[in-house]
Recover the amino acids of this structure.
């Protein structure tokens, strides 16, 4: 059946079964490939998007569960203040290696920073432990989140 | 500092005599340099015909485009390789653009692997000299072209930032303006390379060229390929190697909205759909009955027993020094042990995938591969086409680690695409990815040592058994029962062992495919050697660092990294109860690395790696930022294996399925990692894999220091390490 979902500020209509995960609507139906497939079971975080600002695993989020909520993906996260700071910090610390998990890492980190401008190490562990990086960029992810938090401090 | 080595770096190279470089006009204008990366000693000695395998094009717009065979998989190659050219060519790194080389086994051969592939940590090792020489040759021709146009002596001109300057008058011409003229210059006789103290770019932390696209979601991996009209397929392959589809009920799957087609193969079934959601839903409703075949009852223990038996039988001698048997007979103390390492999956974050459009007379393929020519050759065979009718588009790789040196995913996708009208992207679920890998081989070592009255080693014997990946992947590399990968790290040890005898017995276990896995042979050998040296130190009642140090008389570079890591890790300083430090030392992939891991073992036996300190001598550092990143990466990869990594078979089936049963280290468990680099002007060593092989024994040795329990079988097992209640 047809669903209309607000993605990155625009209404997008798709005709799929209601139990279709948002991940495949984004990647295969709408061609927005920045959001990645990693496990299909919310175990790795590669597919993380924001739903009303909350970091959410799109691989287990069915299209019929979204309703009027606002979906934000990696393609638009740079337009949010927290997302822009996180992306800049990622560039400055040269975080990515293969880069495949980084869309999800950035989405989780942006949600963290938006709700908690000065996260502690424990806050970072809690927010980021759902995102696996096989290249082991964890040390730099932690540093980059702290750098972005400093930028938040200066800005406000 | 090795003066001879520096001299050889800076000596003139007669390019025309060596004939590995040619220059000419590019199609569409500009200068193109074609060079041949040497194929090893034999070719360097007797170059025959000139067949270039890397190309540098300088356009009339001044842009420098490099086409070369190495691929980017996160190791920073796309940044560090252009640094070599930019350094000698005197251009800004941003002016250099890289293009993926098309598949051509003859042209784009990796000089250290002998085939077109990126692996074994050797991109930089292979490219180091030829690409700097090419950059210098191009610069020389551009300067000559400028001097010619001005009618001045080339010696009065110099190159800087993509321009040639006539120093006495300050006149300037850009490389773009000179490229056409330079193409007409006679071949350069010789070029002088910079000495290390003249480097402006090499050794500086250059920003990676691929980072921006990986931060905003625009980077395109194989799985992101979307040729027009593409359908998405996912598949179930026989859960037992060698099994077949016995029966298939596809009625329910065909009724799923979005499902277009069910493809049945001998040993797999694929569901083709409009999107992966429908394909997965369709796959879940399929009723497949499998004929498991002859591996139906296979278990990991059967393989371990076969390997253990093989260590008692005939084996090939990998290295023999002195008379180990005689020395062992007279040793004051004798140690013996059996070590085992498990099968391991790669679990790249980008699951296996490949997009194929089979059009009868030709076949087009989109994927990310470490070995694109292999993909072309294997896909051509599966398609029943000559290789030139198979077009391969290579992409960024969402994790390689050796998995994408294999062509099985492309072959499978071609088999499916042959039955599909239009392009189809075959995406493996994570479960398929983990259960149908080419696994790091299971290895078993029977090792022994003899010590004298003072605890010094007088004899070292090691006989080990396991799969030779080289023998399958690159058959000419397997000779006289040996291959260079299975033995790396087991022979040519850094230590002075007066009597040593190492043997290898190749055993290919039935029912499970083996493949290259980050740090390959050393992933096994360094663990065994460094754990057993630790056992020797303990038997000698000596400190593990001091014990190793005393065996490094002939190896100053190894001693330097060991001393540095001991200092930086505060080796010997007290630690809280339950914690321990362990050390490892290795010379593999052309680099020296010492690591100290600090671990904590909880009462329930769970291990936490708090900190890893490493000291590296990888020769000349091209991009120090990449060296640090690669060490952190390799260490985390190895620590994951040490704590969690194990693939097991039961009833012929891989028991692990996804990241819940095949666990990864996550942010909350990630160790702090300190990287210390020893300055060196030696040629660059490999970087991408060294951290992995060395951290596993460092962790095992730290667990021994914390608990007194020696882990001779990986991964760490909480049941073995837990304290009695």
């Amino acid at each position: 059946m047809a669903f209309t979902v607000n993605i990155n500020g625009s209404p997008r209509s798709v005709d799929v079964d209601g139990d279709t995960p948002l991940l495949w609507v984004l990647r295969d139906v709408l061609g927005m490939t920045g959001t990645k497939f990693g496990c299909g079971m919310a175990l790795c975080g590669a597919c993380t998007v924001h739903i009303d600002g909350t970091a959410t695993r799109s691989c287990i989020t069915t299209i019929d569960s979204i309703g009027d909520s606002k979906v934000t993906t990696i393609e638009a996260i740079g337009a949010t203040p927290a997302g822009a700071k996180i992306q800049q910090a990622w560039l400055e610390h040269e975080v990515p290696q293969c880069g495949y998990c980084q869309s999800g890492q950035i989405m989780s980190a942006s949600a963290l920073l938006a709700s908690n401008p000065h996260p502690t190490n424990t806050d970072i562990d809690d927010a980021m432990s759902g995102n696996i990086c096989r290249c082991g960029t964890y040390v730099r992810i932690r540093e980059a989140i702290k750098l972005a938090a400093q930028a938040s401090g200066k800005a406000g | 500092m090795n003066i001879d080595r520096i001299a050889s770096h800076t000596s003139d190279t007669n390019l025309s005599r060596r004939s590995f470089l040619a220059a000419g006009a590019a199609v569409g204008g500009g200068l193109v340099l074609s060079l041949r990366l040497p194929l090893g000693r034999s070719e360097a000695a007797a170059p025959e015909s000139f067949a270039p395998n890397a190309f540098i094009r300088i356009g009339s717009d001044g842009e420098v485009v490099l086409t070369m065979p190495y691929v980017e998989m996160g190791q920073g190659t796309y940044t560090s390789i252009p640094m070599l050219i930019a350094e000698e060519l005197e251009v800004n790194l941003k002016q250099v653009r890289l293009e993926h080389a098309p598949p051509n086994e003859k042209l784009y051969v990796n000089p250290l692997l002998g085939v077109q592939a990126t692996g074994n940590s050797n991109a930089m090792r292979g490219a180091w000299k030829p690409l700097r020489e090419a950059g210098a040759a191009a610069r020389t021709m551009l300067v000559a072209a400028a001097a010619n146009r001005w009618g001045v002596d080339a010696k009065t001109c110099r190159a800087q930032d993509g321009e040639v300057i006539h120093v006495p008058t300050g006149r300037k011409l850009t490389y773009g303006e000179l490229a056409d003229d330079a193409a007409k210059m006679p071949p350069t006789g010789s070029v002088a390379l910079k000495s290390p103290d003249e480097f402006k770019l090499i050794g500086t932390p250059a920003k990676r060229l691929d980072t921006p696209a990986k931060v905003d979601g625009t980077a395109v991996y194989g799985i992101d390929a979307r040729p027009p009209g593409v359908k998405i397929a996912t598949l179930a392959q026989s859960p037992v190697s060698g099994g077949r589809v016995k029966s298939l009920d596809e009625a329910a799957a065909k009724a799923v909205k979005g499902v277009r087609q069910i493809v049945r193969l001998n040993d797999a079934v694929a569901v083709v759909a409009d999107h992966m959601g429908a394909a997965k839903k369709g796959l879940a409703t399929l009723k497949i009955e499998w004929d498991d075949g002859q591996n139906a009852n296979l278990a990991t223990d059967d393989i371990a027993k076969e390997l253990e038996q093989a260590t008692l039988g005939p084996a090939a001698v990998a290295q023999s020094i002195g008379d180990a048997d005689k020395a062992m007979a007279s040793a004051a103390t004798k140690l013996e042990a059996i070590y085992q390492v498990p099968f391991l999956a790669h679990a790249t974050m980008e699951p296996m995938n490949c997009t194929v459009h089979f059009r009868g007379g030709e076949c087009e393929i989109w994927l990310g591969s470490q070995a694109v020519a292999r993909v072309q050759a294997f896909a051509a065979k599966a398609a029943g086409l000559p290789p030139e009718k198979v077009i391969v588009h290579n992409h960024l790789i969402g994790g390689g680690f050796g998995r994408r040196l294999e062509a099985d995913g492309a072959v499978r996708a071609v088999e499916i695409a042959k039955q599909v009208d239009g392009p189809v992207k075959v995406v493996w679920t994570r479960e398929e990815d983990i259960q149908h890998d080419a696994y790091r081989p299971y290895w078993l070592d029977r090792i022994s040592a003899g010590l004298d009255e003072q605890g010094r080693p007088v004899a070292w014997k090691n006989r080990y058994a396991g799969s030779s990946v080289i023998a399958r992947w690159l058959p000419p590399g397997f000779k006289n029962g040996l291959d260079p990968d299975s033995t790396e790290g087991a022979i040519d040890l850094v230590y002075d062992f007066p009597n040593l005898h190492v043997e290898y017995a190749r055993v290919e276990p039935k029912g499970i495919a083996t493949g290259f896995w980050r740090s390959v042979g050393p992933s096994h050998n360094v663990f065994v050697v460094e754990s057993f040296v630790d056992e020797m130190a303990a038997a000698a009642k000596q400190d593990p660092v001091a014990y190793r140090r005393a065996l490094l008389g002939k190896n100053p570079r190894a001693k330097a990294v060991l001393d540095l890591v001991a200092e930086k890790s505060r080796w010997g300083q007290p630690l809280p109860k339950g914690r321990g430090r362990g050390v490892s030392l290795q010379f593999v992939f052309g680099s020296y690395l010492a690591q100290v891991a600090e671990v904590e073992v909880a009462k329930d036996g769970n291990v936490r790696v708090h900190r890893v300190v490493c000291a590296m001598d990888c020769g000349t550092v091209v991009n120090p930022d990449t060296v640090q990143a690669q060490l952190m990466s390799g260490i985390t990869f190895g620590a994951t294996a040490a704590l969690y990594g194990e693939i097991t078979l039961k009833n012929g089936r891989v028991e692990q399925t996804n990241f819940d049963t095949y666990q990864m280290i996550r942010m909350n468990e990630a160790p702090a990692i300190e990287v210390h680099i020893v300055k060196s002007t030696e040629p660059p060593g490999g970087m991408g894999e060294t951290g992995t092989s060395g951290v596993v024994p460092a962790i095992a040795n730290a667990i021994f220091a914390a608990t007194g329990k020696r882990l001779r079988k990986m991964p760490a097992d909480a049941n073995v390490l837990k304290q009695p209640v």
About this structure: Chain A touches chain B through 60 residues (CB under 8 Å). The mean pLDDT of chain A is 96. The first strand of chain A starts at residue 2 and ends at 7. Chain A is about 40% helix and 15% strand.
